[in-house]
Amino acid sequence: MLIDAVTEILRETAEIAILPRFRALAAGDVSEKTPGEVVTVADREAEDLISRRLRDLLDAPVVGEEATAADPALLSALQAAPTAWLVDPLDGTANFVAGRPEYAVMAALVRSGETVASWVVRPAEDDVYVAELGSGTWRNGIPVHRAPAPADPAHLRGAALTRFLDDATKAHVSSAAHRFTALTPGTKCAGVDYPRLLNGDQDFLLFHRTLPWDHAPGVLLLTEAGGTARHLDGTPYSPSIPKAGLLAAADEASWQTVRTLLLP
Q1: What is the pLDDT of residues 123-144, one digit of tens each?
Q2: Phi, psi at residue 185, to the nearest 5°?
Q3: Residue 251: which of 228, 235, 223, 233 has the closest Cα?
Q4: Do 113 and 200 share a domain, yes or no?
Q5: Which residues are CB-contacts of 72 (< 8 A; sequence separation ≥ 6)?
Q6: Angle between helices 212-224 and 190-199 (to 10 degrees)
Q7: Most buried residue, 40, 110, 154, 167, by CB count within 10 Å?
Q8: Which residues contact 40 (CB under 8 A, 6 or more apart)?
C-alpha cells in the first residue's frame, strides 16, 4: 500500500540520517543556504535517501527542497509532469540545529497539480500524520477530525509568521493581536504548526511564503480533516501555482472571521 510504504521510507530515513544527529551536529555539519536560512548534512542526506526510494516506489520526478535550491527549474515538474513527489527532508532546520524538537520530515504526492496524498512524520515525538484525498486524515493510524473553532474571536488561538510580510500588513497583524486569546509567531516549522491546528492546539495559521514542500502536506492533512486553507483572496491552495499568502483555519467560519479581523 502506497501510504504505508512512504511512511516507512520517511521513518527509516529519520532513523538513519536525522535522529543520530539531533543535538550532535558538528561545526562543519551546518552551513548557510541563503541569508538567515541554514542547511545541515542531515537535510541533504535525508533528501537523497528519500528521493531514491520514492522513485523506486513510483517513478516520477522528485521536487525536493534542497535539490530545488540548487536547481529551481525542478519546480516546473509540479505543472508539467502528470505525477510528482514533493519532499521536505527536514522541516524546521533552524529548530533542529538549536536542539529543539520542533522539526518534521514531510512528503506529498501531486497529480495534475493537486495534492492527493501527504505525510508528516515527527521523529522526536514518534508521531505520523497521513492524508489521502477523499479518504481522510490519520494520526498514528487513528482517524482525525478537526472540530469547529469557537465562534467568538476572543477565544481563538493562532499563529502568524510575520517575517516575510510587508510592513503595512505586519503592522495590521500586530494591531489586531489583542482580538484573539493568543497570537504567536508559531514554531517556524509547518510540519509542527499544521498538526497543532489539526489537534486543536490552535485555531488558525497565517503564512506569507507558500513553498510547496512546506504547505502541500499540511494543507491536505487539514482539509481532509474538515479544516479550511485558502489564499488570502479566497482562492484554493495548489502546490503547482506559486502565490503568496495563505490562511489555514479550523473551519470556514473561523477562516472568514480571522481574514476580516487580522488582515487589511
Answers
A1: 999 999 999 999 999 999 999 9
A2: -75, -5
A3: 228
A4: no
A5: none
A6: 10
A7: 110
A8: 21, 25, 29, 30, 31, 90, 93, 96, 97
Instruction: End-to-end CA distance of the chain: give it in Å, rounded.
Output: 46
- Residues 23-49: tens digit of each pLDDT: 999 989 999 988 888 999 999 999 999
- The neighbouring-strand residues paired with 128 are 121
Question: Are 139 and 47 found together in one domain?
Answer: yes
- The answer on 91 and 178 residing in a single domain is no
Type of residue at 179: R
> Residue 128: which of 97, 104, 95 has the closest Cα?
104
* 31 to 21, 117, 164, 211, 260: CA distances (angstroms): 15, 32, 22, 21, 40
Domain count, the chain: 2
CATH number reported for the structural domain that contains residue 173 in this entry: 3.40.190.80
Residues of the chain where predicted confidence (pLDDT) is lower than 50: none
CA 186 to CA 107: how far, in whole Å? 21
19-24 contacts, C-beta under 8 A, 24 or more apart: 19/123, 22/96, 22/99, 22/101, 22/123, 22/124, 23/99
Check: CB of residue 69 under 8 Å from CB of residue 82. Answer: no
